[in-house]
């Protein structure tokens, strides 16, 4: 396993609780849209076993041509040890990234794509949307639906409806409106549904989609292949 040590080159305050940490691209480090990485602090591998409190699984919110690795995360007043350390980090501080992989690259199958996310989960979809804007080949259209009760919506300069690019974006601040809209979108029996958020959020979305007749193979989750059956078991009632 190769560990890349790199430095924070800028910190962007997206909202009062959400920051994006931009990291220098180490030589030889590559990734694609929808990638996640393991993001860690100094000392995480100092002992016999990795110190898991110093490691988090994070989505990369940028594309390679942006020349920085973006990590977007919410840091609340009350937060974990990891987030406390991150909150105090500054430009020039060093972090580690390793085990980078994409579970949710943009599928180009001449279908409609629906991006369903909660809060900062939208960060996973930012590079997919940018990739689509640059090359729309074999994607009919994309619709993004995000729920965020804080109403401090993320990346609104990118996630705004652009009819000429066949892209629509929708933000809601409550569960009732969100799931009503998911039901409406699930009327597309041939669409591809990407879902990003907490495990509970994934399960609730999958239940709604399956009740509307969406098949497991139409649902894309940011999970390793061996984790998918726990969410998408085919014997689930529809």
TrEMBL record:
InterPro entries per the UniProt record, alphabetical: FAD-bd_FR_type (IPR017927), FNR_nucleotide-bd (IPR039261), Riboflavin_synthase-like_b-brl (IPR017938)
Signal sequence range: none
The name this protein goes by in its record: Dihydropteridine reductase
FAD-binding FR-type domain location: 1-107
Organism from which the protein derives: Oceanobacillus jeddahense
